[in-house]
Amino acid sequence: MLGAALLALTMGVTTFSTGAFGQEPDPNQKIRVSIKGPKSEMASAKKNYKARWDFGTDGFTVEVNAKQYQALLKNKNLQIEKVHEVKLERVQDSTKGKSGATAITSLPSDRTPWGIEAIYNDPSITSTSGGKGIKVAILDTGVYINHYDLVGSAEQCKDFTQATSIVNNSCTDRNGHGTHVAGTVLAHGASDGLGVYGIAPEAKLWAYKVLNDNGSGYSDDIAGAIRHAADEAVRTGSKVIISMSLGSSAKDSLIASAVDYAYSKGVLVVAAAGNSGPGVNTINYPGALPNAIAVAALENVQQNGTYRVADFSSRGSSATDGDYVIQERDIEISAPGRDILSTWYDGNYNTISGTSMATPHVSGLAAKIWSSNPTWTHTQLRAELQRRAKLYDIKGGIGATTGDDYASGFGFARVK
Protein backbone atom coordinates (compact mmCIF):
# COMPACT_ATOMS: atom_id res chain seq x y z
CA MET A 1 0.00 0.00 0.00
CA LEU A 2 2.81 2.38 0.87
CA GLY A 3 4.60 1.70 -2.42
CA ALA A 4 1.44 2.39 -4.41
CA ALA A 5 0.83 5.63 -2.54
CA LEU A 6 4.37 6.84 -3.18
CA LEU A 7 4.11 6.00 -6.87
CA ALA A 8 0.91 7.99 -7.18
CA LEU A 9 2.44 10.96 -5.42
CA THR A 10 5.43 11.06 -7.75
CA MET A 11 3.01 11.27 -10.66
CA GLY A 12 1.22 14.22 -9.08
CA VAL A 13 -2.02 12.33 -8.47
CA THR A 14 -4.15 12.94 -5.42
CA THR A 15 -4.07 9.74 -3.35
CA PHE A 16 -6.86 8.17 -1.34
CA SER A 17 -6.29 4.98 0.61
CA THR A 18 -8.80 3.55 3.06
CA GLY A 19 -7.10 2.55 6.27
CA ALA A 20 -3.58 3.49 5.18
CA PHE A 21 -1.26 3.44 8.21
CA GLY A 22 -4.25 2.39 10.32
CA GLN A 23 -6.14 5.65 9.76
CA GLU A 24 -9.49 6.31 8.14
CA PRO A 25 -9.54 8.88 5.33
CA ASP A 26 -10.61 12.41 6.15
CA PRO A 27 -14.36 12.56 5.32
CA ASN A 28 -13.96 16.25 4.43
CA GLN A 29 -11.11 15.67 2.01
CA LYS A 30 -11.89 17.11 -1.41
CA ILE A 31 -11.14 14.75 -4.27
CA ARG A 32 -11.30 15.98 -7.85
CA VAL A 33 -12.40 13.32 -10.29
CA SER A 34 -13.39 12.97 -13.92
CA ILE A 35 -16.57 11.10 -14.78
CA LYS A 36 -17.12 9.48 -18.14
CA GLY A 37 -19.59 6.97 -19.50
CA PRO A 38 -22.81 6.58 -21.48
CA LYS A 39 -24.68 9.82 -22.09
CA SER A 40 -27.65 8.82 -19.96
CA GLU A 41 -25.45 7.77 -17.04
CA MET A 42 -23.47 11.03 -17.16
CA ALA A 43 -26.68 13.05 -17.29
CA SER A 44 -27.88 11.26 -14.16
CA ALA A 45 -24.59 11.88 -12.36
CA LYS A 46 -24.71 15.59 -13.23
CA LYS A 47 -27.97 15.86 -11.34
CA ASN A 48 -26.17 14.77 -8.18
CA TYR A 49 -22.86 16.57 -8.63
CA LYS A 50 -22.11 20.09 -9.85
CA ALA A 51 -19.77 19.87 -12.83
CA ARG A 52 -16.61 21.95 -12.60
CA TRP A 53 -15.74 21.39 -16.25
CA ASP A 54 -18.05 19.79 -18.80
CA PHE A 55 -16.13 18.34 -21.73
CA GLY A 56 -19.11 16.83 -23.51
CA THR A 57 -18.47 13.28 -24.69
CA ASP A 58 -15.08 13.40 -22.93
CA GLY A 59 -16.88 13.55 -19.61
CA PHE A 60 -16.97 16.12 -16.83
CA THR A 61 -15.08 16.81 -13.60
CA VAL A 62 -16.32 17.40 -10.07
CA GLU A 63 -14.98 17.81 -6.54
CA VAL A 64 -16.39 15.29 -4.07
CA ASN A 65 -15.74 14.17 -0.51
CA ALA A 66 -14.54 10.71 0.49
CA LYS A 67 -18.03 9.26 0.92
CA GLN A 68 -19.20 10.56 -2.44
CA TYR A 69 -16.08 9.22 -4.09
CA GLN A 70 -16.73 5.73 -2.76
CA ALA A 71 -20.33 5.92 -3.98
CA LEU A 72 -19.18 6.90 -7.47
CA LEU A 73 -16.78 3.94 -7.59
CA LYS A 74 -19.70 1.57 -7.04
CA ASN A 75 -21.36 2.71 -10.26
CA LYS A 76 -20.04 0.19 -12.78
CA ASN A 77 -21.50 2.15 -15.70
CA LEU A 78 -19.20 5.11 -15.12
CA GLN A 79 -15.44 5.51 -15.50
CA ILE A 80 -14.14 7.37 -12.46
CA GLU A 81 -10.57 8.69 -12.45
CA LYS A 82 -8.79 11.07 -10.13
CA VAL A 83 -7.67 14.23 -11.89
CA HIS A 84 -3.92 14.56 -12.31
CA GLU A 85 -1.96 17.39 -10.71
CA VAL A 86 0.54 19.22 -12.92
CA LYS A 87 3.52 21.07 -11.46
CA LEU A 88 6.26 23.40 -12.61
CA GLU A 89 9.79 22.05 -12.46
CA ARG A 90 12.59 24.22 -11.17
CA VAL A 91 16.11 23.80 -12.50
CA GLN A 92 18.79 23.73 -9.84
CA ASP A 93 21.58 26.11 -10.82
CA SER A 94 24.91 25.71 -9.04
CA THR A 95 25.69 29.43 -9.22
CA LYS A 96 22.30 30.81 -8.25
CA GLY A 97 20.85 28.30 -5.83
CA LYS A 98 17.29 27.46 -6.71
CA SER A 99 16.27 29.26 -9.88
CA GLY A 100 13.64 31.90 -9.48
CA ALA A 101 14.21 32.42 -5.76
CA THR A 102 14.96 36.14 -6.02
CA ALA A 103 14.51 39.00 -8.46
CA ILE A 104 16.92 41.82 -9.25
CA THR A 105 15.83 45.28 -8.18
CA SER A 106 17.04 47.54 -10.98
CA LEU A 107 16.51 47.99 -14.69
CA PRO A 108 18.45 45.41 -16.71
CA SER A 109 21.67 46.55 -18.39
CA ASP A 110 20.97 44.20 -21.30
CA ARG A 111 17.73 45.22 -23.05
CA THR A 112 17.94 42.24 -25.38
CA PRO A 113 18.92 39.16 -23.33
CA TRP A 114 21.12 36.56 -25.00
CA GLY A 115 18.17 34.38 -25.95
CA ILE A 116 16.62 37.24 -27.93
CA GLU A 117 19.93 38.03 -29.61
CA ALA A 118 20.39 34.36 -30.49
CA ILE A 119 16.92 33.81 -31.93
CA TYR A 120 17.22 37.03 -33.96
CA ASN A 121 20.75 35.91 -34.96
CA ASP A 122 21.96 39.42 -34.19
CA PRO A 123 24.27 40.07 -31.21
CA SER A 124 23.98 43.84 -31.68
CA ILE A 125 20.19 44.07 -31.78
CA THR A 126 18.77 46.83 -29.57
CA SER A 127 15.02 46.34 -30.00
CA THR A 128 12.54 43.88 -31.51
CA SER A 129 9.32 44.00 -33.49
CA GLY A 130 6.56 41.79 -34.89
CA GLY A 131 3.58 39.73 -33.80
CA LYS A 132 0.88 42.23 -34.75
CA GLY A 133 -2.54 40.61 -35.02
CA ILE A 134 -1.51 37.38 -33.25
CA LYS A 135 -2.81 36.33 -29.83
CA VAL A 136 -0.57 34.32 -27.52
CA ALA A 137 -2.43 32.48 -24.74
CA ILE A 138 0.02 31.83 -21.91
CA LEU A 139 -1.24 29.11 -19.57
CA ASP A 140 0.81 29.45 -16.41
CA THR A 141 0.86 30.94 -12.89
CA GLY A 142 -0.75 34.12 -14.16
CA VAL A 143 0.94 37.28 -15.40
CA TYR A 144 1.69 40.65 -13.82
CA ILE A 145 0.08 42.48 -16.74
CA ASN A 146 1.00 45.92 -15.35
CA HIS A 147 4.72 45.22 -15.47
CA TYR A 148 6.76 48.06 -16.94
CA ASP A 149 7.43 45.98 -20.08
CA LEU A 150 4.02 44.31 -20.43
CA VAL A 151 1.51 47.04 -19.66
CA GLY A 152 -0.95 47.47 -22.53
CA SER A 153 -0.25 44.04 -24.01
CA ALA A 154 -2.94 42.02 -22.24
CA GLU A 155 -6.17 41.53 -24.15
CA GLN A 156 -7.54 38.82 -21.85
CA CYS A 157 -6.79 38.11 -18.18
CA LYS A 158 -8.56 35.05 -16.74
CA ASP A 159 -8.23 32.71 -13.77
CA PHE A 160 -9.13 29.03 -14.19
CA THR A 161 -8.08 27.90 -10.70
CA GLN A 162 -10.92 29.27 -8.58
CA ALA A 163 -14.13 27.60 -7.38
CA THR A 164 -16.01 28.88 -10.40
CA SER A 165 -14.77 27.66 -13.77
CA ILE A 166 -13.52 31.01 -15.09
CA VAL A 167 -12.93 34.31 -13.29
CA ASN A 168 -12.59 37.17 -15.77
CA ASN A 169 -10.19 40.10 -15.29
CA SER A 170 -8.13 38.12 -12.80
CA CYS A 171 -4.72 36.59 -13.55
CA THR A 172 -2.55 37.66 -10.61
CA ASP A 173 0.90 36.07 -10.59
CA ARG A 174 2.45 35.58 -7.15
CA ASN A 175 4.97 33.02 -8.37
CA GLY A 176 6.87 34.81 -11.14
CA HIS A 177 7.04 31.97 -13.64
CA GLY A 178 4.14 33.14 -15.81
CA THR A 179 5.32 36.75 -15.90
CA HIS A 180 8.79 35.58 -16.91
CA VAL A 181 7.38 33.50 -19.77
CA ALA A 182 5.19 36.39 -20.95
CA GLY A 183 8.16 38.76 -21.09
CA THR A 184 10.12 36.46 -23.38
CA VAL A 185 7.20 36.38 -25.81
CA LEU A 186 6.10 40.00 -25.93
CA ALA A 187 7.91 42.41 -23.61
CA HIS A 188 7.97 45.77 -25.39
CA GLY A 189 10.88 47.52 -23.66
CA ALA A 190 8.45 50.08 -22.19
CA SER A 191 7.67 53.40 -23.86
CA ASP A 192 11.11 54.78 -23.06
CA GLY A 193 12.93 51.67 -24.25
CA LEU A 194 14.59 51.06 -20.87
CA GLY A 195 13.11 47.62 -20.24
CA VAL A 196 13.71 44.27 -21.91
CA TYR A 197 12.36 43.16 -25.25
CA GLY A 198 10.60 39.94 -26.12
CA ILE A 199 10.53 38.29 -29.53
CA ALA A 200 7.14 39.55 -30.73
CA PRO A 201 6.28 42.72 -28.76
CA GLU A 202 3.32 43.62 -31.00
CA ALA A 203 1.43 40.40 -30.24
CA LYS A 204 -1.47 40.46 -27.79
CA LEU A 205 -1.42 38.52 -24.52
CA TRP A 206 -4.15 36.20 -23.29
CA ALA A 207 -3.02 35.61 -19.71
CA TYR A 208 -4.66 32.42 -18.41
CA LYS A 209 -3.88 31.48 -14.82
CA VAL A 210 -4.06 27.67 -14.60
CA LEU A 211 -1.51 27.08 -11.82
CA ASN A 212 -1.61 28.31 -8.23
CA ASP A 213 0.98 30.43 -6.46
CA ASN A 214 3.06 27.32 -5.69
CA GLY A 215 3.20 26.41 -9.38
CA SER A 216 0.83 23.45 -9.31
CA GLY A 217 -2.63 22.89 -10.73
CA TYR A 218 -5.17 20.36 -11.90
CA SER A 219 -5.25 18.93 -15.39
CA ASP A 220 -8.96 19.67 -15.83
CA ASP A 221 -8.35 23.40 -15.25
CA ILE A 222 -5.58 23.30 -17.85
CA ALA A 223 -7.79 21.37 -20.27
CA GLY A 224 -10.57 23.87 -19.70
CA ALA A 225 -8.25 26.76 -20.48
CA ILE A 226 -6.96 25.08 -23.65
CA ARG A 227 -10.49 24.54 -24.91
CA HIS A 228 -11.49 28.07 -23.93
CA ALA A 229 -8.58 29.54 -25.89
CA ALA A 230 -9.60 27.49 -28.92
CA ASP A 231 -13.22 28.61 -28.63
CA GLU A 232 -12.10 32.22 -28.25
CA ALA A 233 -9.97 31.87 -31.39
CA VAL A 234 -13.08 30.83 -33.30
CA ARG A 235 -15.35 33.42 -31.67
CA THR A 236 -13.00 36.32 -32.37
CA GLY A 237 -11.64 35.04 -35.67
CA SER A 238 -8.11 35.28 -34.25
CA LYS A 239 -4.90 33.44 -34.96
CA VAL A 240 -3.95 32.00 -31.58
CA ILE A 241 -0.84 30.33 -30.19
CA ILE A 242 -1.13 28.47 -26.89
CA SER A 243 2.10 28.48 -24.89
CA MET A 244 2.42 26.02 -22.00
CA SER A 245 5.58 25.97 -19.89
CA LEU A 246 4.27 23.18 -17.68
CA GLY A 247 4.07 19.42 -17.73
CA SER A 248 3.86 16.01 -16.14
CA SER A 249 5.55 12.67 -16.73
CA ALA A 250 2.11 11.08 -16.99
CA LYS A 251 -0.11 11.42 -20.04
CA ASP A 252 -3.44 12.96 -19.10
CA SER A 253 -6.49 12.15 -21.21
CA LEU A 254 -8.24 15.45 -20.46
CA ILE A 255 -5.30 17.56 -21.61
CA ALA A 256 -4.57 15.29 -24.58
CA SER A 257 -8.16 15.61 -25.77
CA ALA A 258 -8.08 19.39 -25.25
CA VAL A 259 -4.87 19.75 -27.28
CA ASP A 260 -6.42 17.77 -30.13
CA TYR A 261 -9.52 19.97 -29.89
CA ALA A 262 -7.48 23.19 -30.07
CA TYR A 263 -5.41 21.90 -32.97
CA SER A 264 -8.60 21.01 -34.85
CA LYS A 265 -9.68 24.66 -34.46
CA GLY A 266 -6.51 25.98 -36.11
CA VAL A 267 -4.63 26.84 -32.91
CA LEU A 268 -0.87 26.24 -32.69
CA VAL A 269 0.09 24.55 -29.41
CA VAL A 270 3.63 24.95 -28.01
CA ALA A 271 4.75 23.18 -24.81
CA ALA A 272 7.87 22.55 -22.74
CA ALA A 273 9.70 19.26 -23.20
CA GLY A 274 10.47 19.06 -19.46
CA ASN A 275 13.55 19.27 -17.26
CA SER A 276 14.14 15.55 -16.70
CA GLY A 277 17.12 15.06 -19.01
CA PRO A 278 19.54 13.97 -20.21
CA GLY A 279 18.18 10.43 -20.46
CA VAL A 280 16.30 9.18 -23.50
CA ASN A 281 12.48 9.09 -23.32
CA THR A 282 12.23 11.65 -20.52
CA ILE A 283 9.96 14.08 -22.38
CA ASN A 284 6.93 15.35 -20.46
CA TYR A 285 3.30 15.83 -21.45
CA PRO A 286 1.62 17.77 -23.00
CA GLY A 287 4.80 18.49 -24.96
CA ALA A 288 5.03 14.82 -25.91
CA LEU A 289 1.68 14.90 -27.71
CA PRO A 290 1.80 14.81 -31.54
CA ASN A 291 -0.36 17.94 -31.84
CA ALA A 292 1.92 19.98 -29.57
CA ILE A 293 5.34 21.39 -30.45
CA ALA A 294 7.76 20.09 -27.80
CA VAL A 295 10.56 22.57 -27.08
CA ALA A 296 14.00 21.59 -25.79
CA ALA A 297 16.34 24.02 -24.01
CA LEU A 298 19.64 25.25 -25.46
CA GLU A 299 22.53 26.82 -23.63
CA ASN A 300 25.14 29.24 -24.95
CA VAL A 301 28.55 27.60 -24.70
CA GLN A 302 31.09 30.04 -23.24
CA GLN A 303 29.03 32.93 -24.61
CA ASN A 304 30.60 32.43 -28.04
CA GLY A 305 27.51 31.76 -30.11
CA THR A 306 27.80 27.97 -30.04
CA TYR A 307 24.67 26.25 -28.80
CA ARG A 308 23.98 22.81 -27.38
CA VAL A 309 21.11 21.10 -25.61
CA ALA A 310 21.25 21.73 -21.86
CA ASP A 311 21.84 18.67 -19.70
CA PHE A 312 18.56 19.19 -17.82
CA SER A 313 16.48 19.31 -21.02
CA SER A 314 14.28 16.23 -21.50
CA ARG A 315 14.93 14.01 -24.51
CA GLY A 316 12.61 12.21 -26.87
CA SER A 317 12.79 8.72 -28.32
CA SER A 318 16.02 7.71 -30.04
CA ALA A 319 14.00 5.18 -32.04
CA THR A 320 12.60 8.02 -34.14
CA ASP A 321 15.97 9.76 -34.61
CA GLY A 322 16.32 11.06 -38.15
CA ASP A 323 12.88 10.04 -39.42
CA TYR A 324 11.80 13.68 -39.96
CA VAL A 325 8.35 12.85 -38.63
CA ILE A 326 6.92 14.18 -35.36
CA GLN A 327 5.33 11.39 -33.37
CA GLU A 328 4.34 11.05 -29.74
CA ARG A 329 7.29 11.59 -27.37
CA ASP A 330 9.33 13.51 -29.97
CA ILE A 331 11.22 16.75 -29.45
CA GLU A 332 10.39 19.16 -32.28
CA ILE A 333 12.23 22.48 -31.83
CA SER A 334 15.01 23.87 -29.61
CA ALA A 335 15.44 27.37 -28.19
CA PRO A 336 17.45 29.25 -25.52
CA GLY A 337 16.62 28.00 -22.03
CA ARG A 338 19.63 28.43 -19.77
CA ASP A 339 20.06 31.66 -17.75
CA ILE A 340 17.25 33.59 -19.40
CA LEU A 341 16.55 37.14 -18.25
CA SER A 342 12.93 38.32 -18.36
CA THR A 343 10.17 40.13 -16.49
CA TRP A 344 9.18 39.17 -12.93
CA TYR A 345 5.99 39.27 -10.89
CA ASP A 346 7.15 42.09 -8.57
CA GLY A 347 7.83 44.51 -11.41
CA ASN A 348 11.53 43.69 -11.58
CA TYR A 349 13.50 41.15 -13.63
CA ASN A 350 14.93 37.71 -12.99
CA THR A 351 17.20 35.14 -14.61
CA ILE A 352 16.02 31.51 -14.50
CA SER A 353 16.50 28.32 -16.50
CA GLY A 354 14.43 25.49 -17.92
CA THR A 355 12.55 24.28 -20.96
CA SER A 356 9.88 26.59 -19.53
CA MET A 357 12.12 29.44 -20.69
CA ALA A 358 12.78 27.87 -24.10
CA THR A 359 9.08 27.45 -24.87
CA PRO A 360 8.15 31.17 -25.03
CA HIS A 361 11.06 31.77 -27.42
CA VAL A 362 9.35 29.43 -29.88
CA SER A 363 5.89 30.85 -29.14
CA GLY A 364 7.19 34.36 -29.80
CA LEU A 365 8.96 33.30 -32.98
CA ALA A 366 5.79 31.62 -34.20
CA ALA A 367 3.82 34.83 -33.52
CA LYS A 368 6.35 36.90 -35.44
CA ILE A 369 6.34 34.57 -38.45
CA TRP A 370 2.55 34.18 -38.49
CA SER A 371 2.06 37.94 -38.34
CA SER A 372 4.14 38.30 -41.50
CA ASN A 373 2.22 35.48 -43.21
CA PRO A 374 -1.40 36.00 -42.09
CA THR A 375 -2.90 33.70 -44.74
CA TRP A 376 -1.01 30.68 -43.43
CA THR A 377 -2.67 27.91 -41.46
CA HIS A 378 -1.21 26.70 -38.20
CA THR A 379 0.12 23.61 -40.00
CA GLN A 380 1.97 25.77 -42.53
CA LEU A 381 3.40 27.81 -39.66
CA ARG A 382 4.54 24.63 -37.93
CA ALA A 383 6.25 23.42 -41.10
CA GLU A 384 8.05 26.77 -41.41
CA LEU A 385 9.39 26.48 -37.87
CA GLN A 386 10.80 23.07 -38.77
CA ARG A 387 12.25 24.41 -42.02
CA ARG A 388 14.10 27.21 -40.24
CA ALA A 389 15.59 24.90 -37.63
CA LYS A 390 19.27 23.96 -37.63
CA LEU A 391 21.24 21.56 -35.44
CA TYR A 392 23.96 23.00 -33.20
CA ASP A 393 26.59 20.89 -31.48
CA ILE A 394 24.07 18.13 -30.74
CA LYS A 395 26.35 15.12 -31.24
CA GLY A 396 29.74 16.64 -30.70
CA GLY A 397 30.09 18.57 -33.94
CA ILE A 398 29.69 22.31 -34.34
CA GLY A 399 27.79 23.61 -37.33
CA ALA A 400 24.46 24.63 -38.80
CA THR A 401 23.12 21.52 -40.44
CA THR A 402 19.58 20.28 -40.89
CA GLY A 403 18.40 17.11 -39.22
CA ASP A 404 16.07 15.47 -36.73
CA ASP A 405 17.67 14.65 -33.41
CA TYR A 406 16.03 13.08 -30.36
CA ALA A 407 17.57 15.76 -28.12
CA SER A 408 16.94 18.90 -30.18
CA GLY A 409 14.32 17.84 -32.71
CA PHE A 410 14.78 19.70 -35.98
CA GLY A 411 17.06 22.09 -34.11
CA PHE A 412 17.19 25.80 -33.34
CA ALA A 413 14.66 27.83 -35.36
CA ARG A 414 15.45 31.54 -35.69
CA VAL A 415 14.15 34.78 -37.16
CA LYS A 416 16.83 34.72 -39.84
Automatic annotation (TrEMBL):
GO molecular function, one term: serine-type endopeptidase activity
Secretion signal, residue range per the UniProt entry: 1-22
InterPro entries, per the entry: Peptidase_S8/S53_dom, Peptidase_S8/S53_dom_sf, Peptidase_S8_Asp-AS, Peptidase_S8_His-AS, Peptidase_S8_Ser-AS, Peptidase_S8_subtilisin-like, Peptidase_S8_subtilisin-rel, Subtilisin_Carlsberg-like
Keyword Transcription attributed: no
GO CC terms: extracellular region
Gene3D superfamilies: Peptidase S8/S53 domain
GO BP: any one term: proteolysis
Residue ranges of domain Peptidase S8/S53 in the record: 131-394
Keywords: Calcium, Hydrolase, Metal-binding, Protease, Secreted, Serine protease, Signal
Named cofactor requirement(s): Ca(2+)
Record carries keyword Signal: yes
Active site feature: D140, H177, S356
Alphabetical list of PROSITE patterns matching this protein: SUBTILASE (PS51892), SUBTILASE_ASP (PS00136), SUBTILASE_HIS (PS00137), SUBTILASE_SER (PS00138)
Intracellular or extracellular location(s): Secreted
Similarity comment text for this entry: Belongs to the peptidase S8 family.
Protein name per its UniProtKB record: S8 family peptidase
